[in-house]
Amino acid sequence: RCGQASITLRADGQVIVIGGTSGDDGVLIRRNPDNASLLDIFINSLTPIFTVPLASVGEIVFNGSGGNDTLTVDSTDGAIDVPGGIHFDGGDGSDERAKESDRGKLHLDM
């Protein structure tokens, strides 16, 4: 947990679910610059709050809740291609996504 935002791994071990707060949330997803086989997830933070082997991730879901939420998928250090894709539901508020690369699957539900 980071503040009131949360990150959970579903029981099957492959789905990462990020839960936002009623305020503005910023999520950054990127490969670790020192080890591209790892995925770093930042939530309202300048340092990663969760790191996981990319090969173990089947899907990423960000439920933004309220506020003005931002999802950034940074593929600078390699494509972030998970089989089930990356889903973003910003909830209420003015939400946006920034994508540093066109590689990988990104599904937006805004």
Give a written overview of the molecule.
The chain is mainly beta. Helix content is 0%, strand content 45%. The protein has no helices and ten strands. The chain has a five-stranded mixed β-sheet with strand order 1-2-6-8-10, with no helix packed on it. Strands 5-4-3-7-9 form a five-stranded mixed β-sheet, with no helix packed on it. The radius of gyration is 13 Å and the shape is globular. The relative contact order is 0.22. Residues 101-110 have low confidence and may be disordered.
Summarize this entry quickly.
The protein has no helices and ten strands.
Q: What is the helix content?
A: under 10%
- Sheet with most strands: 5 strands, mixed
Task: Compute the separation of the termini in Å.
Answer: 24 Å
Quick one: how many beta strands? 10
- Compute the average pLDDT: 78
**SSE class:** mainly beta
Alpha carbon gyration radius: 13 Å
Low-confidence stretches: 101-110
Run of helices and strands: EEEEEEEEEE
Strand order of the largest sheet: 1-2-6-8-10
Residues in β-strands, percent: over 45%
The number of distinct helices, counting runs of at least 4 residues, comes to 0
What is the 3D shape? Answer: globular
Strand and helix layout:
Blueprint (H helix, E strand, L loop, with lengths): L5 E4 L5 E5 L6 E7 L2 E9 L6 E4 L5 E5 L6 E5 L11 E4 L6 E4 L6 E3 L2
Parallel strand pairs: 2-6, 3-7, 6-8, 7-9, 8-10
Antiparallel strand pairs: 1-2, 3-4, 4-5
